[in-house]
């Protein structure tokens, strides 16, 4: 498995940001339960757990830019396109189902979760394509 | 695009890993190029040509070219 310095940096960044996300999420949930903030502070606190996730998206973008191996970069871009297409399709379909009262409301941050699921799907597509000689 | 990368590599008794190290790419990139699953960019094609000290067209040929 190819692991460039760019990929190692991405992995370390994601590890750090994931820990920050878990810490922020538990902290903010506890804060809203015990001493709910008000006004601008409430907005700032609510956004806090989202920031590490935004950081992961940025880290992914940086990895795509920094990866020196053009073939690996091509595979990663395809993986990203599959993830984005999967997320957009799923949220669009769900949105219509929700509009016609056929599905329950899901929070908008589910889009990010679906995108990460799409990355896994894209990774599987890459493995299949490489093994069957299609890429 | 067809290429003679595997033959040129074998002539020098290099493994895919050896060639990958010399080109500063992954072994899977070399494998993908050799098996025709991936056509390298022009800069990488030049790098390959410079490594083997032959012209690009002596390594890569169009799939539609019959001669």
TrEMBL record, chain A:
Any transmembrane segments, and where? 12-34, 40-60, 80-97, 109-130
The protein depicted here goes by the name Uncharacterized protein
Source organism per UniProt: Sphingomonas faeni
Entry keyword Transmembrane helix: yes
Q: Which UniProt keywords apply?
A: Membrane, Transmembrane, Transmembrane helix
From TrEMBL, chain B:
Q: Keyword Cytoplasm: yes or no?
A: no
Origin organism of this chain?
Sphingomonas faeni
Instruction: Note the Pfam families from the entry.
Output: HTH_3
Please list the residue ranges annotated as the HTH cro/C1-type domain. Answer: 5-59
Query: Under what name is this protein listed?
Result: Xre family transcriptional regulator
The alphabetical list of record keywords is: DNA-binding
Gene Ontology MF term list: DNA binding
The question of whether Transcription is a record keyword is answered with: no
Family annotation (InterPro entries): Cro/C1-type_HTH, Lambda_DNA-bd_dom_sf
Q: Which SMART domains match?
A: HTH_XRE
């Amino acid at each position: 498995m190819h692991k460039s310095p760019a990929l190692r940096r991405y992995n370390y960044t994601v590890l750090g940001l994931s820990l920050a996300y878990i810490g922020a999420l538990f902290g903010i949930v506890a804060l809203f339960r015990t001493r709910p903030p008000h006004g601008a502070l409430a907005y700032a606190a609510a956004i806090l757990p989202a920031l590490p996730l935004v950081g992961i998206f940025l880290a992914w973008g940086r990895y795509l830019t920094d990866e020196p191996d053009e073939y690996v970069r091509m595979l990663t871009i395809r993986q990203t396109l599959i993830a984005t297409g999967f997320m957009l399709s799923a949220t669009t379909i769900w949105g219509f189902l929700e509009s016609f009262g056929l599905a329950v409301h899901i929070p908008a941050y589910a889009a990010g979760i679906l995108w990460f699921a799409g990355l896994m799907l894209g990774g599987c597509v890459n493995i299949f394509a490489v093994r069957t000689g299609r890429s | 695009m067809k290429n003679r990368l595997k033959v040129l590599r074998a002539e020098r008794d290099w493994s895919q890993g050896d060639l990958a190290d010399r080109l500063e790419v992954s072994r899977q990139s070399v494998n993908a190029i050799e098996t025709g699953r991936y056509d390298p960019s022009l800069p990488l094609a030049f790098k390959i040509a410079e490594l083997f000290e032959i012209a690009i067209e002596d390594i890569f040929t169009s799939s539609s070219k019959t001669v």
